[in-house]
Amino acid sequence: MRIVRLAMRNFRSYAAADVELGPGVTVVTGRNGAGKTNLLDALYFGCTGRSARTTNERELVRFGEKVVRVEVTTEAPDGLHELSVGFTPGEPKRMTADGVRVERLLDVAGRPLVSVFLPDRLELVKGTPSLRRAHMDQLVAALWPARAATRRAYNQALAQRNALVARIRGGGASLDSLSAWDRELARHGIALMADRSSAVDLVAERFAARADELGLDGDPAIAYRARSKATDADTLAAELADRRAQDVERGFTGHGPHRDDLLLTREGRELRAYGSQGQQRLALLALLLAEREAIAATREATPVMLLDDVMSELDRDRRARLVGLLRGRGQSVITTTDLDHVPGGEEPDVMRLSVADGAVRVEAQAA
Questions:
Q1: 121-300: which CATH number, 3.40.50.1820, 1.20.1050.90, 3.20.20.140, 3.30.2130.10?
Q2: Which residue of 32, 138, 164, 277 sits 20 to 30 Å from the alpha carbon of 182, by its own alpha carbon?
Q3: What pLDDT is attached to residue 107?
Q4: How large is the greatest C-alpha to C-alpha distance in the chain, in angstroms?
């Protein structure tokens, strides 16, 4: 499945724009502030129903306007499909798939999967464990959509256990009353740990290979760091029971998969703390590329790759290596201020767009 058309109305800097994308690499050029990143965000918004850049969706609405709408036309083996999402600030979003109202675009079976690189996403490497946990869970959902329910069930059980911990702390319940929620949390927790471990195992070898191809030396690796060493629900429940007093003292559950992390290392040391920004950038690219390959192999659907300003801090050799990893491997959209920063950007199989003054112009169609 690929994206063939994007239509925007009152999305950020665009009053109205209709954009066609090539089947392989599409390069979007324009000066800083022209709207290149907004175009990528519109693609992400149209495929997922949420922004890749902000949780404050009022920021998506063009200044002075009251309604925003994005439509994405996709092409699949069974023909064309259309996704749309729009809203008025303060009102619920309206999302449709082929004209039928849906609660979440993420639940639409035929939607394109999307992987996005933004400069801000370096926080995935150098930020807090919560970002990497969320990323692992998104990867699990992309690989095996039905398993997304495991994380939801775990979060619900965790919320119930935390509520009971608060009641015990306030004198409204006994410590022994946690037994049932220890078992429930452990049951979902073991399943969640298994899902995360399986996902990381699928990606780890690919990550090392892609990192090597991008020129990241020092034996880069990824690994799943689980807070618990338990291999079954009974053992995890026992660990929770042993920590009840500490949990009541703190007022929340301090042990379990909600404290796990994804380790990215080089020379055996965490890139989060010991990697340069350039090394962190290469690791993030390698991770996204490896995940894309794992998803394509598992689901026979290659995610669309959205890469914003990725070339500006790479040398020419690494730019060429990155483009080589993208060409012929599904659909990707790359933004840049200078076409010369994208090796092979003038080849006939590359579609070129330019952005200026709120308008998108086709510079060259892909052959």
A1: 1.20.1050.90
A2: 138
A3: 85
A4: 72
pLDDT digits (tens, 9 = 90+) for 249-262: 999 999 999 999 99
- CATH 1.20.1050.90 domain span(s) along the chain: 121-300
- Asked if 237 and 183 touch (Cβ cutoff 8 Å), the reply is yes
Buried b / exposed e across 203-240, counting CB within 10 Å, b at 16+?
bbebbbebbeebebeeebbbebebbbebeebeebbebb
Alpha-carbon distance of 128 to 125, in angstroms, equals: 8
pLDDT in tens, 32-57: 999 999 999 999 999 999 999 999 99
Whether the predicted pLDDT of 190 surpasses 80: yes
Domain 1-113+305-367 classification at class level: alpha beta
pLDDT at 367 over 80: no
Fill in the amino acid letter for 276: S
DSSP state of 302: P
Strand partners, 96: 84, 101
Q: What is the pLDDT of residues 191-248, one digit of tens each?
A: 999 999 999 999 999 999 999 999 999 999 999 999 999 999 999 999 999 999 999 9
The CA distance from 74 to 84, in Å, is 11
- Distance (Å, whole) CA 44 – CA 174: 48
Is 0.85 surpassed by the pTM of this model? yes
Rounded Cα distance, 100 and 149, in Å? 23
- Amino acid code (one letter) for 22: G
- CATH 3.40.50.300 residue ranges for the chain: 1-113+305-367
